[in-house]
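Hi all, posting the design record for the shared folder.

TITLE: backbone redesign
STEP: 1 of 1
STRUCTURE INPUT:
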């Protein structure tokens, strides 16, 4: 099935795609598949499919929902999908490994800041001996998280900036985010690190659990949409149409957060809607690229080279973006961006 989708893309009529531009087209939509995570960083993708916003721009998008960034990279590397959503740190590590992806759009993002990481948090259980704000008290404790994912990178940054080493804590690798709450509740770990909605789910389901640290400006937790580089050259209009659909979906998500949570719950099982509606308040869906976004990517690259991929050659961050698609969509569809706060002069 996946091979048929890929073959259909490769053989799609250029004339049919070009007829669509960034606007609604009478031609049948082109089938594409995207790999996304089962968390709120990817919420506009769920919304765009459910509300038909991708189809309005000529894209019949199917979603492959997975647990982690590793799963996303693997699906892209194996050419199982054409679009891969992933965090900035996951993307940069994939690029260092030689995967031929480029960023074509931003999903979870705050274009006004270079350090928006509020969806990330460290949560502890009662009796752990870790006080709110007491990062140094993590030393010698058992911490549950998904190794090699954004939560892992976040913890490394938090510890490093407090003069601590990653080896100062004992990591329990919990790759399935829903498993974090029972691990903390049963005392298998003293604290957990994750993203939304799972931090809020832990706080809601583990009695007397509490936030040790939420965000803190350690990185900008950005979720990016990526595509294989050959597709950018072979079918740019297809990518442009996808970006237009995503821009519309991002705005719909911003304006209809409660409805977006209900849409998410249709695809991700066992979502507590009351908890999810709290969790979504910690997330921004601003698709714009700005100097702050570039600064965030540079900072993420700094930390990856320092803490994870030591001695690796530095990537040219601007070369990782194919940003012309978003620029063209902003010009063609300013209505998708008119609810966002204006960017200050330094961010234009």
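Okay, here is what came back for every position:
SEQUENCE:
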């Amino acid at each position: 099935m996946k091979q048929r989708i890929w073959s259909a893309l490769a053989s799609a009529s250029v004339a049919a795609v070009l007829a669509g531009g960034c606007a609604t087209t009478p031609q049948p939509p082109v089938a594409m598949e995207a790999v996304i995570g089962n968390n709120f960083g990817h919420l506009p993708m769920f919304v765009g499919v459910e509300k038909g916003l991708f189809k309005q721009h000529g894209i019949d998008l199917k979603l492959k929902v997975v647990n982690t960034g590793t799963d996303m990279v693997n699906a892209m590397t194996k050419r199982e999908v054409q679009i891969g959503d992933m965090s900035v740190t996951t993307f940069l590590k994939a690029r260092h490994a030689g995967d031929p992806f480029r960023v074509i759009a931003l999903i979870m993002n705050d274009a006004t800041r270079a350090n928006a990481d509020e969806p990330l948090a460290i949560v502890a259980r009662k009796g752990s001996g870790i006080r709110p704000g007491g990062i140094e008290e993590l030393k010698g404790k058992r911490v549950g998280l998904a190794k090699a994912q954004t939560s892992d990178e976040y913890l490394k940054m938090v510890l490093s900036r407090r003069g601590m080493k990653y080896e100062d804590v004992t990591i329990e690798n919990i790759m399935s985010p829903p498993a974090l709450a029972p691990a903390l509740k049963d005392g298998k770990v003293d604290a957990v690190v994750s993203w939304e909605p799972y931090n809020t789910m832990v706080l809601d389901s583990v009695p007397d659990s509490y936030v040790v640290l939420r965000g803190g400006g350690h990185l900008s937790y950005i979720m990016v949409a990526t595509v294989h580089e050959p597709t950018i050259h072979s079918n740019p209009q297809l990518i442009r149409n996808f970006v237009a659909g995503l821009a519309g979906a991002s705005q719909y998500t911003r304006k209809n957060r409660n409805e977006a949570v209900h849409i998410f719950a249709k695809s991700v099982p066992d979502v507590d809607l009351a908890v999810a509606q709290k969790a979504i308040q910690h997330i921004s869906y601003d698709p714009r690229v700005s100097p702050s976004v570039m600064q965030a990517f540079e900072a993420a690259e700094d930390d990856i080279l320092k803490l994870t991929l030591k001695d690796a050659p530095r990537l040219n961050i601007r070369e990782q973006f194919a940003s012309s698609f978003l620029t063209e969509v902003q010009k063609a569809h300013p209505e998708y961006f008119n609810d966002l706060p204006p960017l200050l002069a330094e961010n234009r």
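COMMENT: The two ends are 43 Å apart (CA to CA).
Let me know if anyone wants the other runs.
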